[in-house]
Design brief:
By secondary structure, this protein is an alpha/beta fold. It folds into 2 domains: 115 residues, no CATH class; 114 residues, Rossmann fold (3-Layer(aba) Sandwich), CATH 3.40.50.11810. Strands 2-1-3-4 form a 4-stranded parallel sheet, with helices on both faces. The protein has a 4-stranded parallel sheet with strand order 6-5-7-8, with helices on both faces. α5 runs antiparallel to α6, α7 packs across α9 and α11 packs across α12. The longest helix is centred in the last third of the chain and has 16 residues. The two termini are 21 Å apart. The relative contact order is 0.15.
Length: 239
């Protein structure tokens, strides 16, 4: 199966290993992965900040960059959810309405693509650690992703998955929310981290590096022992 990889801005700039590991996992699942080096942003930051016109320009480029894709896979439920749920509104009654809807129907977050499309639940990974899973708001509420990442984690050799309290509660990042309402954002992150630590897990795993980046900042600031790791990094381990 041929897939196009979409790499979110912050992964490209700050956590490139997540992108490389996404390729590794997809190839292990039997896919031929293609990467368009002309790709940029999905348009979500500008859209969420209220700059819909500027966002539309970026989204139009996204449609051009991926118009020939059979499937688009991203290690980010946030970006996938934005394209899937908002491109129809952005391009309503527009010349790009049809290609935008096509692109929106073809984008998937990594875990849902593996489980729901490829029907792969065991990628052959091993990770000797106790972990807990954080449901990102975008993954849970925009992509309806709940079971797929847990199914994959439960098949990882040596891994013990333990659930934290309030796993579906926001971590406080929310993109520009963390900048505009920093005090609230920090309190929400600390509450999430406390729930994770209470499980005695060594790692917090998520489908979204943005959430993990936010929590990692607070963990490092507070000198806490727990670590964060993206689902792709776990699934790429051990082979």
């Amino acid at each position: 199966m041929n897939v196009q990889l979409f790499v979110p801005c912050f992964i490209d700039q700050l956590y490139p290993q997540v992108a490389f590991n996404t390729i590794k996992v997809l190839e292990k699942g039997g896919c031929t992965v293609k990467y368009n080096p002309q790709q940029t942003c999905c348009g979500q930051p500008a859209f969420n900040a209220g700059f819909w016109g500027e966002s539309k320009d970026v989204c139009t480029k996204f449609v051009h960059d991926f118009d020939n894709a059979d499937y688009i896979v991203s290690p980010s439920a946030s970006c996938a959810g934005f394209v899937r749920n908002h491109f129809g509104k952005i391009f309503e009654n527009n010349a790009y309405q049809s290609p935008a809807k096509k692109v929106a129907s073809q984008i998937f977050e990594l875990s849902e693509f593996l489980v729901d499309i490829l029907q792969v639940t065991n990628i052959g990974a091993s990770f000797d650690a106790k972990v807990t899973f954080h449901d990102s708001c975008a993954g849970l509420r925009e992509c309806n992703i709940k079971q797929a990442p847990r199914t994959l984690l439960n098949k990882v050799s040596g891994l013990e998955l333990v659930e934290m309290n309030d796993t579906e509660t926001c971590c406080g990042f929310g993109g520009s929310f963390a900048v505009k309402f920093d005090t609230i954002s920090v309190a929400m992150a600390d509450q999430k981290i406390d729930n994770a630590i209470a499980t005695h897990a060594e790692y917090v795993v998520s489908t979204d590096m943005s959430c993990l980046m936010h929590m990692e900042g607070r963990i490092n600031f507070n000198g806490q022992a727990i670590k964060v790791i993206h689902l792709a990094d776990v699934l790429a381990n051990g082979y």
